[in-house]
Structure formats: C-alpha cells, structure tokens
Amino acid sequence: MRTHVVDHPLVAHKLTHLRDEKTDSPTFRRLADELVTLLAYEATRDVRVAAYDIVTPVSPTTGVSLANPKPLVVPILRAGLGMLDGMMRLLPTAEVGFLGMIRNEETLQASTYAERLPEDLRGRQCYVLDPMLATGGTLAAAIKFLTDRGADHITAICLLAAPEGCARLEKELEGLDVPVTIVTAAMDERLNDKGYIVPGLGDAGDRLYGVVG
Ligand code: URA
C-alpha cells in the first residue's frame, strides 16, 4: 500500500477552513468539493490512457485518451457523496458505483447496507471516495469488496487520514495482489477514544449534510 499526502498550500488552506468548527455546511460542502478536485489531480496520476490519433489544424499527431474500460468512481455513502462532484469534474467520463457502509459507533465495525456496482470489475481501475480514513475498517471492507469482484487497481481519496487507520489497512490488505494507493490532504495525529480523528474535522457526514439522529 502506498500513502501519498498531498503537500500544497491550496490544499492546506482549504483543509484548515474545513476543520474550523465555525465553517457552516454550505461552505463545508463547497470546500470539500474544491479540495477533492485538487486531490483527484494527484490521485489520477496513474489513470490508464491509450494512444489516440488526431489531426490538429496543422498536422496529424498522436496523443492519449482515457482507456477502456473507463475508471469506476465509488463514493462510500453517506459522506463520500460530498466528494463525488469534485471527482467527476476531473473524470467526467468515469462510471459511478455506490457502496453504502456504516460504522457501528460502539464496536467501530463497518458493515455494508447498500451496493450498486457492476458484478464484474475485472480490469477496472477504481477510485474510492471516503472522506475520513479513521479506524480503516470501512475502507478495508470497501477495498476487499471491489477486489473480490476483480478490480485490479485501487486508489482511495480521503480528506484526512489517521496513522492507526493506515496501519490497520496495511495489515488487512497484506497479501492482496492489487496495488492500493491512499491519497489524502493530511495525516493527522491520532484517533480519540470514540474513533474520531484528532485534530480532524468532526463527523464529515454531519458537517456535509446535518445531524440525523
Ligand atoms: N468519521 C468521521 O466523520 N470523522 C472522524 O473523525 C472519524 C470517522
């Protein structure tokens, strides 16, 4: 597993305002959207392309175009939805599959409650959108779900990550013969006893969409 922390002043600027408890939901949604587009630029460095012949007004030439099958973008519901538009802005021809996962706040175990994904993901590059890599349970389950269906290249885009989550992910994915890359805006200090990232930004789903009981 490879972890890439994107070191860029604009990323740090947007992340600081996302973290701020004074930032309201509309501003949080806009900043998350913009931040994802910046992270997506780094995350798509290995996106597969194929040679593509064109004719410019001056001469024929060969460039590249996104290869087939097109990449699959997989937001993890609910909070990953807040990252979808920012990702699709950069990869408008990608396909989108949905994975609903919820964390039991007592056991911190992740379980799947919804999925809408192609059955056969052989040869597919997948971009998983999950804002908070906290305990790593949700992301590990999502990655296993995708690789069980044949995905052969996984990149997860996370606004924030915690060292404990990265360590668990590394352990759970040991022996997996598929390259996995984590792209994040920051590696924070630690998790607190409720499994929240510190200093973090709080509950990403609640900050995007409000508190639902
Ligand atoms: N999920 C969140 O939304 N925030 C955290 O800090 C950890 C998990």
Ligands, ions, cofactors: uracil
Give the overall shape, derived from the CA principal axes.
globular
Q: Per CATH, which architecture?
A: 3-Layer(aba) Sandwich
| Strand element count | 14
**Main beta sheet: strand number and arrangement?**
8 strands, mixed
- The CATH class turns out to be Alpha Beta
Instruction: Return residue spans where pLDDT drops below 50 for at least 5 consecutive residues.
Output: none
Sketch the topology as an H/E string, one letter per element.
EHHEEEHEEEEEHEEHEEEH
> How helical, in percent, are the residues?
25-40%
Gyration radius from CA atoms, angstroms:
18 Å
Structure description:
The protein is of the alpha/beta class and 213 residues long. It has one domain (2-50, 65-209): Rossmann fold (3-Layer(aba) Sandwich), CATH 3.40.50. The chain is 30% helix and 30% strand. The protein contains 6 helices and 14 strands. Strand 2 and strand 3 form a beta hairpin. Helix 1 runs antiparallel to helix 2 (25-43). The protein is globular and about 60 Å long. It binds uracil. Uracil binds at residues 79, 132, 134, 195-197, 200, 203-205.
Features:
Rossmann fold; alpha/beta; 213 residues; single chain
Tell me the layout of helices and strands.
Elements (H helix, E strand, L loop, with lengths): L1 E4 L3 H11 L5 H19 L5 E7 L4 E7 L5 E6 L6 H5 L6 E2 L1 E6 L6 E7 L8 E5 L2 E2 L3 H12 L4 E6 L1 E2 L1 H10 L7 E5 L5 E2 L5 E2 L5 H6 L4
Parallel strand pairs: 1-12, 4-5, 4-6, 4-8, 8-10, 9-11, 10-12
Antiparallel strand pairs: 2-3, 6-7, 13-14
Bound molecules: uracil.
